[in-house]
Amino acid sequence: MTAKILCVAGARPNFMKIAPLLAAFRSAKSFEARLVHTGQHYDAKLSKIFFEELAIPRPHVELEVGSGTHAQQTAEIMKRFEEVVIREQPQAVLVVGDVNSTTACALVASKIRLEKPFRCRFGERTRPLVIHVEAGLRSHDNDMPEEINRKVVDAISDLLFVSDPIGMELLAKENVSDPDRVFFVGNVMIDTLLGAKEKAAQSTIREEFGVAGKPYGVVTLHRPSNVDDPANLSQLLRTLDGIASRVKLVFPVHPRTRQKLEAMGMAFDEARWKVVDPCGYIDFLDLTANATLVLTDSGGIQEETTVLGVPCITLRENTERPCTIDQGTNQLVGTDPSAILAAVDRALSGRVEKRVPPLWDGKSAERIRDILEQVFAVS
Ligand code: UD1
């Protein structure tokens, strides 16, 4: 029997993780993969463009849930995904990352009883296997919705694929270390980055934004802790404006942040700032790869800048990706103006070392495919 794996993607950072997995799974013999798009992100600039640029196949199912409060969004995904799982009777559900779609679909899969039992390396089962790619990340900050998502999903997953050795240690401390279930495979998002580098080099976005051949920084902000409170956001932007007087800042604005900026009536000096809509994957990769520095509160960008060797200043109090500090170019500074300015001085002086964490080599999705082949070979 060929096993069926429903692979879930819902929000922007999921798409670059699911793309290499679906590509690697095409050659699998013991299982077939089908994509479910929850529709957590629905704007063309946060979703469709990634499908086109990363050649992600059309989803088998689109749940079209849209936005809402955490409970509304999670509940709506669960209701709609449960119907899909009942109809499709998959032997496994694979989720990536730490967004609400990840938790919602993992929870649904973990409570379904299949009509027919199936066999896999773990014996006979009546529940689909729950597979988490990017397991083992922890910020130790329960105020972040993503931290709750990470803990819940790791706790109920049958197979955990971990991106870096720190994640393996962390899971071991939580008594999750069974070598048949927990695998260090490297970082699937870096598979996508390495695969897209050549295409990104053809991008004309730097000419379009007027920064080609010039020093510039890239800013991204979307964490609720940074953007939801107008006082925090305006203080952060004042600090960044001081940096913009030294090096022009390109700022692709996330929809959550745009809503807040519009409500505040925020204006940017065009001589110092290039404020734009969210960029596609290829243009954004070219922008970051050639930047003098990046200032961000994103998780994925901390990893991408590590591999690109570009100084990254993380505008958060904690990170779930400490290997980007120990082994990458990341400086975790929070939002204190003097800490940000000191980090910028360090980045501009070129004193940031470039190292790449182990197994961030473009082959992580293939490793996952090979492990899953063994899991389902007995079915
Ligand atoms: C979500 C993820 C976050 C991830 C981020 C990347 C959760 C809890 N959060 O945060 O981990 O880092 O995506 O972008 O899953 N909106 C649009 N168009 C869209 C989607 C959203 O305009 O296509 C607006 C809506 O007003 C929405 C707001 O952005 O209310 C926030 O969207 P939401 O998906 O709730 O959270 P993100 O901030 O995008």
Task: Describe the fold and architecture.
The protein is of the alpha/beta class and about 375 residues long. It has two domains: about 5-185 and about 360-375, 3-Layer(aba) Sandwich (Rossmann fold), CATH 3.40.50; about 195-350, Glycogen Phosphorylase B (Rossmann fold), CATH 3.40.50. It is built from 16 helices and 15 strands. It has helices at about 10-25, 50-55, 70-90, 100-110, 145-155, 165-175, 190-200, 205-210, 225, 230-245, 255-265, 280-290, 300-310, 325, 335-350, 365-375; strands at about 5-10, 30-35, 60, 90-95, 120, 125, 130-135, 160, 180-185, 215-220, 250, 275, 295, 310-315, 330. Helix 1 (about 10-25) crosses helix 16 and helix 3 (about 70-90) crosses helix 4. It starts with a strand and ends with a helix. Uridine-diphosphate-N-acetylglucosamine (UD1) binds near residues 12, 100 and 222. Uridine-diphosphate-N-acetylglucosamine binds near residues 40, 67, 254 and 255.
Please tag this protein with its features.
379 residues; alpha/beta; Rossmann fold; 2 domains; seven-stranded parallel beta sheet; 44% helix; 17% strand; binds uridine-diphosphate-N-acetylglucosamine
Explain briefly what this protein structure is:
This protein is α/β, with parallel strands linked by helices and 379 residues long.
The major β-sheet equals:
7 strands, parallel
Poorly predicted runs of 5 or more residues: none
Mean of residue pLDDT values? 96
Cα gyration radius (Å): 21 Å
User: What name does CATH use for the topology of the largest domain?
Assistant: Rossmann fold
Please give the alpha-carbon distance between the first and last residues.
Answer: 6 Å
Give me the CATH superfamily of the largest domain.
Glycogen Phosphorylase B
- Total helical segments: 16
**Number of β-strand runs:** 15
Shape: globular
Give me the side-by-side strand order of the main sheet.
Answer: 3-2-1-4-7-8-9
Indicate the percent of residues in helices. 40-55%
CATH architecture of the largest domain: 3-Layer(aba) Sandwich
